Amino acid sequence: MKLASAYGLPLQTPQTSDIEALAAEILQALKYRVGKDATVATQYDWLTAAILVVRDRIIDHWVKSTKQAYEQSAKRVYYLSLEFLIGRLMRDAFSNLGMMEDMRAALGSLGVELDVIATLEPDAALGNGGLGRLAACFMESMATVDVPAHGYGIRYANGMFRQEISDGWQVELPETWLDHGNPWEFERRERSFEVGFGGTVEQVAAKDGRLERHVWRPQERVLAVAYDTPVVGWRGNRVNTLRLWAGMPVDPILLDAFNAGDHIGALRESNKADALSRVLYPADSSPAGQELRLRQEYFFTTASLQDIIQRHLSQYGELHSLPEKAAIHLNDTHPSVAVAELMRLLMDVHGIDFDTAWGITKGTFAYTNHTLLPEALESWPVPLFERLLPRHMQIVYAINAQLLHEARTTGQFDGEQIARISLIEENGERRVRMGNLAFAGSHSINGVSALHTELMKETVFADLHRLYPSRINNKTNGITQRRWLFQCNAGLTGLIREAIGDRFLDDIAALTELDAFAGDAAFREKFAAVKRANKARLASIVAERQGIKLDPSALFDIQIKRIHEYKRQLLNIIEAVALYDQIRSHPERDWMPRVKFLGGKAAPSYHNAKLIIKLANDVARVINRDPAVRGLLKVVFTPNYNVSLAEVMMPAADLSEQISTAGMEASGTGNMKFALNGALTIGTLDGANVEIREHVGADNIFIFGLTAQEVAERRNGGYAPRGVIETSPELSQALAAISSGVFSPDDPNRYRDLISGLYDHDWFMVAADFDAYAATQRQVDAVWGDSPDWNARAIRNVARMGWFSSDRTIRQYAREIWNVPA
C-alpha cells in the first residue's frame, strides 16, 4: 500500500513508502534511538519515535534547501525576534509533508493513537502573544513561498510562565516544556559565539600615529550556543532554519573557588549565563530586571550577527556585499541594538570605516514596528547602557551626531523637533531610544496595518518620517492558513474541499469561491454542524479542566489575548455585569444564551492587568452560580492560554472580541484567525479590523465605538468621563456593583481604585465606548436569533479572509523590502 498523503502529496524521499514499512521504521526508531522496546514504551516514547521518523524525511529537504541556497548564491533573509511562539510542531510538520494520515495508520497498526500522543507534545515556551505567533507564521510562510531564511531568537528554558488560577488570581509557574527533551532540535556546539558585557574601550593607533580602531575589552564573557529547528514549508518544498541561542558559561565551574569551599561562588558565572536564556521578558520594574532584559537582547543579537557575518565571509570573502546578499529584519524594537552591534563588528573587527559601515548597515537592516505605545518602543537609561555596552554607547553617540547634523542641515526642524529625532532622550533621565535607533539604521520601516502605518507617520515617528519620507511603508499582518484552518479545523477544511475542491489548499485566494455557498441552505446546515462539533469539543475541555458545564447551542463569545488595559478586557467584563443585571431585572425578555470566554496572561508586574483577571474570575463565580440567570449567561476564564488552546478556541468561536481602544492595536492576528474559522467580529475600527471590514463587508462585522481620530480629540479636548458614566444607567449600575464589592464580598474595596480610574481619567475610553458596545452586543443577539442569516455572514467571513494569509504578507516583504524572489 503506497503512502497517500492527506492532500495527495507524493513523498520524494529515500525511505520506503508503505504503511507496514513505515510502522517498521517507527519501531526501529523506538528501539535504536529512544532505547525502548514496544512492550515497555511510554506514550512520550512513541511521540518521540514518530517525530524522529518524520524528522529524517525533513532533513532530506533541509539539506537540499540549504545546498541550493548556497549554490545559487541566493540572498538570505535573517529574521531577528525575541519571540517565536511556534506551538506544537508535530501536526505542522506531518501535515506540511503530507504524512498525517499515513503516520496515523502506521501508528494505529502498532496500537498507538496519533491524536493521543500529539496532545503530549508541549507548547514551546518561546513567546507570549501576537508578536511571537506572527514570527512563527512568517517562518512557515517563508519556507512555503521559497524564501531562504533563518529565524534567530533565544532558546528559553522556561519562557514566559505557565499560568495557573488560584482563588481567581494569576499564579506564575515555570513552563517546563523541555522536561522530556525536544526531538525537533539539533544542538550545534560548533556554532558558538562569545558575548561580552561591561569592561573598557581602548583606542589602538596605527604605525603613523593616527587612530586606527577601537578595541572593546569586556569584563564578562559568556557563550551563545546554537540550537537549530527545521521549519517545514507547505508540501515540503523548502525547509528553513530557526536558530535559537542558549547561554552557557565560558568556564562552567571555577575550580579554585569550589575547592576552597565556595561552592555557590564557583557556579556564579554558570548561573549568570543560564539566566540569559531562562525566562522571557524578566520583569523590568526593578533595575536588575532592566539589566537582564538588555543583556538578553544584546546576547541574541550579537550571536546572530556574528553567525550571519561568518556565513557571509565563508561564501563571499568580504562584507561590502552584505546588503546584496543578506536582509536582516528586526521584528519590533527588541533587537534594535543590532544596529550598533553591526557597526561595531564592521568597524572594530573588520576594519571598515564609519561612513562605509553605516551605508552597509542601513542597506542591510529593515525594521517592523508593532506598537504605538511609547513604553513598548523601549529605551534604556544611559548609565545602564554605557556600563553594559560601553563601545555601543560610543557608536550610538556617533550615529546620533550624524543624524542630528543631517536634520539640522535640512532647515526643516526646530529645536523641539530635533530633540524628538535624537537617539538620546534628554527630558528627565537621559535614555537611549531604541525605536529611533532602529529607524535610523534601517532602509525600511513598516507598520503592520494600514491604520497603524499612518498613525506611525503622525505620532511616534512623525519627525523621523519628515526627515526620511520614503522609509515608512505598510505590510498588513497575516496568518498561515495551514495551522489556523487546515490543521486546527479539519471539519471546516473538509467541508470547504467538498464544496469548492482542493485548489485553495495551495492558492488561498481560491477561498473566495466559497462565497457562493452562503445562500445555500444545505451548506449552511453543514457549516453549522461543523461549528457545533467544534463548540462541543471546547465545552468538553472546559468541563474536564474547570468543572463548568456549557451548552454548545449558546453563542460562544470569545476574547483571548494578552491582558492589557488597552485591549479592554475590562470593557467586556463590565458589559457582562450589565447584561447580568438586565437578565435578572427583565426575565420576560427573550434573551439569547451566551457564554463569554476570556483568556490570556498578564505580565507579572502589571498590577491592573492581574486585577482584571481576578475580576473576570470573581464575576464568573457569581454569575455562573446564580439560578436567576437560568443558564442564559456564563463567564469562563480559560487558564494558561497558549497556541494549543487557541487551536481549539478559534474554531469554536461564534463571536470574536476585538475591542481595543481605537488607535492602540497595531494590527492583531487573532481577529484574522477567528474570522477565517467562521466567527463574526465585534470590534472597534482599530488595527487590521479596518481592513477586515473592507474585505468581509460592513454587513458581516459588528463595528462600534470611537475612531482613532475621535479618541485623540477626546483626549486633547478635556474629556470628562464622570459625566458620561452618570448619564448611562447600565454603566453606572455595573460600576457601582463592582466598586462596592458585590463580586468581592471577601474584600469590598478590591476594585475601588480600578473603577475610580474610569471616573477620573478613563485613558482607554472604556466609559466612552460602553453604551455603543452594549448596544452592538444586542444587535449581535438579534442576528444570532436568525440562524440562517448568522451562518451566511459567517460563511462570507471565511470566504473573504484569504487576503490575510501570511503568504501574501511575506511575498510583499520579499518584493518590496528584502528584494528576494518569492
Automatic annotation (TrEMBL):
Record key words, sorted: Allosteric enzyme, Carbohydrate metabolism, Glycosyltransferase, Pyridoxal phosphate, Transferase
Coiled-coil portions: none
GO molecular function, one term: pyridoxal phosphate binding
Lineage: superkingdom: Bacteria
Pfam families reported in the protein's UniProt record: Phosphorylase
UniProt modified residues of type N6-(pyridoxal phosphate)lysine: K673
Gene Ontology CC annotations of this record: cytoplasm
BP terms from Gene Ontology: glycogen catabolic process
The reaction(s) this protein catalyses: [(1->4)-alpha-D-glucosyl](n) + phosphate = [(1->4)-alpha-D-glucosyl](n-1) + alpha-D-glucose 1-phosphate
EC number(s) reported in the record: 2.4.1.1
Presence of the UniProt keyword Glycosyltransferase in the record: yes
Cofactor list: pyridoxal 5'-phosphate
NCBIfam families xrefs: P_ylase
Family (UniProt): Belongs to the glycogen phosphorylase family.
Role noted for this protein: Phosphorylase is an important allosteric enzyme in carbohydrate metabolism. Enzymes from different sources differ in their regulatory mechanisms and in their natural substrates. However, all known phosphorylases share catalytic and structural properties. Allosteric enzyme that catalyzes the rate-limiting step in glycogen catabolism, the phosphorolytic cleavage of glycogen to produce glucose-1-phosphate, and plays a central role in maintaining cellular and organismal glucose homeostasis.
Protein name: Alpha-1,4 glucan phosphorylase
Protein source organism: Pseudaminobacter soli (ex Li et al. 2025)
Lineage, highest ranks first: Bacteria, Pseudomonadati, Pseudomonadota, Alphaproteobacteria, Hyphomicrobiales
